[in-house]
């Protein structure tokens, strides 16, 4: 199995591309059925390998074929170099992973998807379709069965190239490599996939333990992921081998094995690779930025895996979910331009209250289209019970509700102002009473009383101005939120139309 990708079970998998390919008679290598697993840089080695053994007819044996991406790459290399020959594919197209063993492994979802694709028989049907649709029906020959059943039936020294990429369990790889030694011609090349680390790169005890664990893909103690069965088997059978980004090769030389020198300048990516390769160029807070077939697209993270981009590429934008552009800079501009629309989508779809800050002794909580100011003394408050119930339980003094953070802070300010006014008024009244009592014995207090009354009038006027300012601020906020709500309703309708269209499509 070649180049696993981060598994997510069936999340982010679109069958649109597969359906179109089947209906239009085109090969398909993509996320559906995990039909694309190869790393492009490794496929770049195929043509130089064929060139290194080139003669009139080149016979290639492939052990492990899955959906046919590598088989097509070998056939393409023959055609590109103007050579005749065949690619013999040995695969049972049946589940081979011990899912119980992999249950605690990181790649369980990946192997589950492979097992489902194999159990249903769909992956073999896709292999047949890809061979036929590629026009290589005369070149690619399938032999159905496990390698332990098929390989012993093949004649010794009958292949110029033997490519090993089947089960990565230690005993399986050892069997395939030993058969490959018997089957390759003198001067021929044995090669394979998924050699991320060579045996000399690891402590012997570490790789032995990992290979015996039964996991096909693990992380080394140094943090580098690798296939321990491949590493140990290749190291035992050949020692150090020639290697290019996980693709490895040795040449049969006399009674032993030698390194391989490839014409790397001749390394081209097979034409079918371009349609399958999705490259993540970067991301924003809300979107993946992706290149595919020379085009750029932005895919909302909320839709799932960026692998979906290859399936969803289209000419038109679907704001705020999907955008296309001719350059990465243009794409970033489109995403930034629609950030407000995306913020509204997030508000509409938000299902979990979020603490967004604190202000003057209140916790600020955001949920859907409202912001809540809640005193910490209330303890945990479930704002999902509804605004009316919140106010009924906790009162307007301890629970403040508005459409925005500004609206809540304005009401908190107004509440604090009212409390301050009441406190000052109480103090002034007490002082006024004290002064009034003093005038009964000292006429000079009358003059002081009048001065204090004037001060109180000025304070009331100042408070009135603050009230007016707060009211104007509240009106502005209310008008803004009404405008936002209108835009939100329009956006909700547009999203509903898009979702309806997606379901119908």
Account of the 3D structure:
This protein is α+β, with helices and mostly antiparallel strands. The longest helix has 61 residues, at 444-504. The two termini are 33 Å apart. It is built from 17 helices and 18 strands.
Write a brief caption for the model.
The protein is an alpha+beta fold. The chain has 17 helices and 18 strands. Strands 1, 2, 3, 4, 5, 8, 9 and 10 form an eight-stranded mixed beta sheet that branches. It has a four-stranded antiparallel beta sheet with strand order 11-12-13-14. Strands 15-16-17-18 form a four-stranded antiparallel beta sheet, with helices on both faces.
Unreliable residue stretches: 1-13
Strand content: 15-25%
In terms of quaternary structure, the protein is: single chain
Largest β-sheet summary: 8 strands, mixed
| Class derived from helix and strand content | alpha+beta
Based on Cα principal axes, name the global outline: elongated
Mean pLDDT level: 81
- Helix content class: 40-55%
Count of helical regions: 17
Rg from alpha-carbon coordinates = 36 Å
- Measured between the Cα atoms of the first and last residue, the distance is 33 Å
Total DSSP E strands: 18
């Amino acid at each position: 199995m070649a180049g696993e990708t981060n598994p997510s079970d069936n999340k982010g998998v679109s069958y649109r591309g597969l359906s179109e390919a089947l209906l239009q008679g085109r090969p398909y290598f993509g996320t559906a059925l995990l039909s694309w697993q190869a790393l492009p840089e490794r496929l770049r080695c195929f043509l130089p390998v064929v060139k290194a053994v080139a003669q009139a007819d080149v016979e290639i044996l492939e052990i492990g074929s899955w959906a046919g991406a590598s088989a097509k790459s070998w056939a393409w290399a023959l055609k590109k170099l103007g050579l005749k020959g065949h690619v013999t594919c040995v695969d049972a197209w049946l589940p081979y992973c011990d899912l119980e063993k992999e249950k605690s492994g990181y790649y369980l979802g990946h192997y589950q998807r492979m097992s489902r694709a194999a159990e249903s028989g769909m992956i073999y049907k896709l292999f047949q379709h890809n061979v036929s649709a590629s026009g290589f029906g005369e070149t690619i020959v399938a032999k159905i069965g496990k390698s332990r059943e098929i390989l012993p039936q093949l004649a010794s020294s009958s292949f110029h190239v033997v490519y090993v990429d089947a089960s990565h369990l230690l005993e399986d790889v050892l069997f395939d490599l030993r058969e490959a030694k018997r089957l390759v011609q003198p001067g021929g090349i044995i090669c394979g996939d998924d050699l991320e680390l060579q045996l000399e790169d690891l402590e012997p005890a570490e790789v032995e333990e990992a290979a015996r664990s039964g996991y096909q893909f693990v992380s080394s103690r140094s943090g580098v992921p690798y296939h321990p069965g491949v590493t140990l088997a290749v190291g035992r059978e050949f020692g150090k081998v020639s290697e290019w980004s996980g693709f490895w090769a040795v040449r049969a030389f006399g009674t032993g094995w030698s390194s391989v020198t490839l014409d790397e300048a001749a390394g081209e990516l097979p034409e079918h690779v371009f349609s399958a390769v999705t490259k993540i160029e970067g991301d924003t807070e809300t979107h993946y930025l992706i290149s595919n077939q020379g085009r750029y697209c932005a895919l909302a993270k909320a839709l799932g895996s960026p692998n979906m981009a290859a399936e969803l590429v289209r000419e038109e934008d679907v704001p705020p979910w999907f955008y296309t552009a001719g350059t990465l800079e243009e794409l970033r501009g489109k995403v930034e331009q629609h950030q407000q629309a995306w913020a509204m989508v997030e508000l509409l779809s938000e299902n979990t209250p979020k603490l967004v800050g604190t202000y003057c002794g209140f916790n600020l909580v955001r949920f859907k289209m409202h912001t809540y100011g809640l005193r910490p003394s209330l303890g945990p408050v479930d704002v999902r019970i509804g605004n009316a119930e919140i106010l009924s339980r906790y009162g307007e003094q301890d629970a403040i509700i508005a459409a925005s953070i500004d609206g809540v802070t304005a009401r908190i300010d107004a509440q604090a102002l009212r409390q301050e006014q009441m406190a000052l008024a109480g103090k002034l009244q007490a002082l006024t009473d004290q002064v009034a009592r003093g005038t009964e014995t000292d006429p000079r207090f009358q003059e002081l009383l009048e001065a204090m009354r004037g001060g109180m009038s000025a304070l009331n006027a100042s408070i009135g101005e603050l009230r007016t300012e707060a009211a104007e601020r509240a009106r502005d906020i209310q008008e803004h939120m009404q405008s936002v709500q209108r835009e939100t309703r329009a956006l909700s309708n547009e999203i509903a139309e898009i979702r309806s269209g997606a379901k119908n499509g």
